[in-house]
């Protein structure tokens, strides 16, 4: 299947070439590694796989002829060449200017980088200074050019001496990614100072020196599309397009010392210059490094630098995904080679690159890192970023920049002893819980400890894989542990004992005496070999009670109401809700953004939470779920939203879950020369935001040659951009890719693209459980929270007829509510302001069931409450008597009564007199004197429940007596 290139019979000795014309990416196969050394001086850049006998490089017809003449079998890498041609076309179509590289918006130009650093230095004068270290070649010549300017980042308020990191970028001009990576590294540190704990202590106690553009003259040509490598020195080569000195072969240590390590032919890409250090760029960088680091190594090649030598030098290149250390000019190991390998493998764990001594690639001499290590003894590295000179921005943003910035951060943390500290466990994810306390309160610190994170491959010249030991101990410090008087506060293993290489640690910190303000807490761990690792840090803030407030609440799923374990960030502080969704914490008065997030849910943001001292705030937050806009469980029976281009297919039993997975063959390994897509149909994502793709995968391909690639399109497949690339992975893992470029896209597509080259097959890229999810208005519209009635009660639940009961309710998410009366079928409509909670007074005459009905999503819902109405007891006349019942004429009798439950009583005489109305205070018990002339019947009438009732009492009036006749014989006088 190899596509051999027909070549003109060029001769190996002719150094004439039309640089830039017809450049293709080729694979050159060799059967003898010495062939690589023979052509190495001709190669500006190459990927070399010695085990495979394969070299890959950009080559014009002249170089292709050289490779063939040297005994290589040469074939075209058509996909990579097409990309190269397309890039070239984009440049020729654009008008080149000082700003912005056509088609590569993520890479700032020389001028843009300078402006940005000047701005940063003027806004952060205590943290960043720009240091002029010398001229470029063109500047020196008086023909334009630039000053080389180092960004020196450190907190100048804290005096040194401090260990230093010196990083340079894009010394090879066409390497776009290094300069931008370094610029962001500086921005991240300087802008993170004060909020990012590690950035803060790094700048307090270390120095970071960054030369973003080490070859600005050359870079300016590369920004116009030239595959320019060298500086622009025109003194030695007559052909304008081939001029310049390879600055990374010009350094005055072991200059021109290795067979094939550089070229003496001025027009060639690795021309080393007339003498070591001949170029002003080289001179400036070498002098700056020497002044910065001093000399720590003896004169012999075999003299090691002392183990406690501080400082690191790094030279960032692209491409090939490599972490390299000295030597490059000899196969003898560097005298500090073992320690260099340990740090190199630690760094490579961040970016996943191959870690090896530089000679493992091919011989190089006069390089930057051989100089800084060889002359000064300082730990020195070269990175080869990514997979392209003109790397696409997606890959840079998603893969190269974050992983390599993390590697640089690690380097910045071990500067105090880079030959020692990397042997110990790393300390990450340090945080204080809580991260803000009232003065005098307690806090704990938690951290992840990891002795195992390192690149474990064994490429040529990588040295043995360092042993990994269990964590032995860890401690927290309130001052940097290396300072005199630092007090260790021992931490414990979260699982009870330190016995594995990866542990979580926790422990109380002595926070009681801390004054109000922000404090750094440092954590350092030791492994069982006794090696201490680099420190990690977190802030703990102490607030005076008079400046403090509190906040509490619950985070729930807006649809189900279920509690969520969510991250609650308020200003610089964060906390995690408990299993019941609840959180409660102390705040400092101020105005803070509040953000609540949980996996699978849309993040809720309150831009400015106003907090006054003494406040006790409540914030309950209900989160919307994100929606699956595309879901492929990849099971045989399920219809897939993806269209597979053969031989993509669902293979049963190949999934992580034991079911099916997408693969590139029905069985066994994939075929060679594949470039096949598994593409979604067009999706309308209008109204959606926070789009992200999640899938399980095992990318078991030939590393560095066969790839799984995820691409997205916002125009229905008209053009695609890469968002993810994988190769050489034997383990399943879950990949989560934010895809902001698809937010709101009406014609969005996603595809899984697999490419294989001409040789070496492997099991392939298994893809399973693919979900494209998104939030936004369109997603929210489909998940209105259901209406619910949380309470509906009558108080009191039982009344005496005529009394009043109060109906009270609380509801959620109701759009309308009403209360129906079972007795009279009347309906009371609840006013909108009272929907969530309110009261309604009722006074039923009899037992009534009141039904509250509320409308809303998933509604209506109802709730009932019963009001029991009891009757008052009936009116009764217990007694109504006349005393005495018989009177003589002219005498009085007393009517007396006792009643129950009477509301009104009156007494009527049957002699026709006016009724007597009993005063209310006499209703229950009373009396009335009467003096009837004749016999009278009195009727007491009382009203009340069950009334009226009556009772009768009569008074008999005795007539006057006749004259008395005494039987004693005497007669009274008339
Ligand atoms: Zn380079």
UniProtKB/TrEMBL annotation:
InterPro entries, sorted: CarboxyPept-like_regulatory, CARBOXYPEPT_ZN_2, Peptidase_M14
UniProt KW keywords: Metal-binding, Zinc
Keyword Zinc among UniProt keywords: yes
Active site: 384 (proton donor/acceptor)
A GO cellular component annotation in the UniProt record: extracellular space
Peptidase M14 domain boundaries: 106-414
Entry-linked SMART domains: Zn_pept (SM00631)
Gene Ontology molecular-function annotations: metallocarboxypeptidase activity; zinc ion binding
PANTHER family registered for this protein in UniProt: OS02G0119300 PROTEIN, PROTEASE FAMILY M14 CARBOXYPEPTIDASE A,B
Designated name of the protein: Peptidase M14 domain-containing protein
């Amino acid at each position: 299947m190899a596509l051999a290139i027909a070549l003109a019979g060029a001769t190996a000795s002719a150094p004439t070439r039309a640089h830039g014309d017809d450049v293709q990416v080729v694979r050159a196969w060799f059967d003898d590694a010495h062939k690589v050394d023979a052509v190495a001086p001709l190669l500006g850049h190459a990927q070399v796989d010695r085990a495979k006998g394969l070299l890959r490089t950009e080559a014009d017809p002249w170089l292709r002829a050289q490779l063939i003449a040297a005994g290589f079998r040469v074939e075209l890498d058509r996909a990579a060449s097409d990309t190269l041609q397309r890039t070239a076309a984009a440049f020729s179509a654009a008008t080149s200017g000082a700003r912005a590289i056509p088609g590569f918006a993520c890479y700032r130009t020389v001028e843009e980088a300078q402006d940005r650093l000047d701005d940063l230095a003027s806004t952060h004068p205590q943290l960043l200074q720009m240091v002029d270290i010398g001229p470029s070649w063109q500047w020196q010549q008086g023909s334009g050019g630039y000053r080389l300017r180092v960004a020196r980042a450190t907190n100048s308020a804290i005096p040194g001496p401090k260990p230093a990191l010196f990083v340079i970028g894009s010394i090879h001009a066409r390497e776009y990614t290094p300069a931008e990576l370094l610029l962001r590294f500086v921005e991240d540190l300087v802008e993170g100072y004060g909020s990012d704990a590690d950035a803060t202590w790094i700048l307090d106690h270390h120095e970071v020196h960054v030369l973003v553009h080490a070859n600005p003259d050359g870079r300016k040509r590369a920004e116009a599309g030239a595959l320019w490598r060298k500086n622009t020195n025109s003194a030695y080569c007559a052909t304008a397009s081939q001029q310049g000195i390879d600055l990374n072969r010009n350094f005055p240590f072991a200059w021109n010392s290795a067979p094939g390590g550089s070229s003496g032919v001025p027009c060639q890409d690795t021309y080393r210059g007339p003498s070591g250090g001949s170029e002003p760029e080289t001179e400036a960088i070498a002098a700056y490094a020497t002044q910065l680091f001093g000399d720590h190594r003896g004169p012999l090649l075999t003299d090691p630098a002392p183990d406690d030598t501080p400082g690191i030098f790094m030279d960032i290149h692209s491409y090939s995904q490599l972490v390299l250390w000295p030597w490059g000019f000899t196969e003898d190991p560097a005298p500090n080679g073992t320690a260099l390998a340990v740090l190199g493998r630690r760094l490579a764990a961040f970016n996943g690159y191959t870690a090896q001594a530089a000679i493992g690639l091919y011989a190089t001499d006069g390089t930057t890192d051989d100089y800084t290590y060889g002359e000064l003894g300082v730990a020195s590295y070269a990175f080869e970023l990514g997979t392209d000179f003109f790397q696409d921005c997606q890959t840079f943003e998603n893969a190269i920049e974050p992983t390599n910035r993390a590697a640089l951060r690690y380097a910045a943390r071990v500067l105090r002893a880079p030959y020692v500290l990397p042997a110990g466990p790393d300390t990450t994810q340090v945080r204080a819980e809580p991260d803000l306390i009232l003065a005098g309160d307690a806090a704990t610190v938690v951290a992840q400890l990891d002795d195992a994170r390192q690149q474990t491959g064994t490429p040529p010249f990588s040295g043995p894989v360092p042993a990994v030991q269990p964590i032995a101990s860890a401690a927290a410090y309130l001052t940097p542990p290396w300072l005199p008087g630092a007090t260790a506060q021992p931490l414990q293993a979260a699982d009870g004992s330190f016995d594995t290489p990866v542990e979580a640690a926790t422990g109380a910190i002595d926070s009681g005496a801390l004054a109000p303000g922000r404090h750094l807490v440092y954590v350092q761990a030791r492994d069982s070999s006794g090696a201490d690792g680099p420190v990690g840090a977190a802030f703990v803030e102490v607030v005076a009670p008079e400046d403090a407030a509190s906040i509490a609440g619950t985070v729930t799923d807006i649809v189900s109401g279920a509690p969520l374990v969510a991250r609650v960030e308020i200003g610089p502080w964060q906390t995690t809700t408990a299993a019941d969704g609840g959180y409660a914490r102390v705040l400092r008065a101020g105005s803070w953004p509040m953000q609540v997030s949980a996996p699978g849910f849309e993040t809720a943001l309150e831009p400015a939470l106003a907090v006054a001292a003494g406040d006790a705030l409540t914030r309950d937050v209900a989160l919307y779920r994100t929606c699956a806009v595309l879901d492929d469980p990849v099971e045989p029976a399920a219809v897939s939203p993806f269209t597979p281009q053969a031989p993509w297919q669902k293979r049963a039993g190949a999934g992580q879950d034991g079911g099916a997975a997408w693969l590139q063959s029905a069985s066994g390994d994939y075929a060679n020369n594949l470039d096949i897509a598994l593409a979604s149909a067009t999706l309308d994502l209008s109204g959606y935001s926070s789009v992200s793709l999640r899938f399980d995968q095992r990318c078991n391909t030939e590393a560095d040659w066969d790839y799984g690639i995820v691409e997205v399109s916002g125009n229905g497949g008209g053009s695609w951009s890469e968002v993810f690339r994988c190769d050489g992975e034997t383990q399943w893992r879950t990949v989560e890719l934010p895809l902001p470029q698809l937010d709101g896209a009406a014609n969005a597509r996603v595809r899984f693209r697999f490419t294989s080259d001409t040789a070496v097959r492997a099991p392939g890229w298994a893809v399973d459980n693919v979900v494209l999810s998104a939030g936004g208005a369109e997603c929210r519209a489909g998940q209105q929270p259901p209406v619910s009635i949380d309470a509906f009660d009558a108080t009191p639940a039982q009344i005496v007829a005529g009394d009043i009961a109060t109906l009270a309710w609380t509801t959620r998410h109701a759009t309308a509510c009403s209360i129906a009366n079972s007795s009279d079928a009347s309906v009371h409509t609840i006013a909108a302001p009272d929907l969530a909670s309110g009261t309604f007074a009722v006074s039923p005459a009899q037992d009534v069931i009141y039904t509250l009905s509320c409308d809303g999503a998933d509604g209506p819902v109802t709730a009932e409450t019963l009001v029991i109405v009891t009757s008052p007891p009936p009116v009764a006349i217990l007694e109504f008597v006349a005393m005495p019942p018989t009177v003589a004429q002219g005498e009085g009798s007393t009517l007396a009564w006792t009643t129950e439950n009477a509301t009104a009583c009156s007494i009527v005489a049957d002699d026709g007199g006016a009724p007597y109305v009993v005063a209310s205070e006499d209703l229950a018990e009373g009396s009335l004197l009467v003096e009837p002339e004749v016999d009278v019947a009195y009727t007491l009438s009382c009203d009340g429940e069950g009334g009226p009732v009556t009772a009768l009492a009569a008074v008999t009036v005795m007539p006057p007596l006749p004259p008395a006749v005494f039987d004693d014989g005497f007669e009274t006088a008339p």
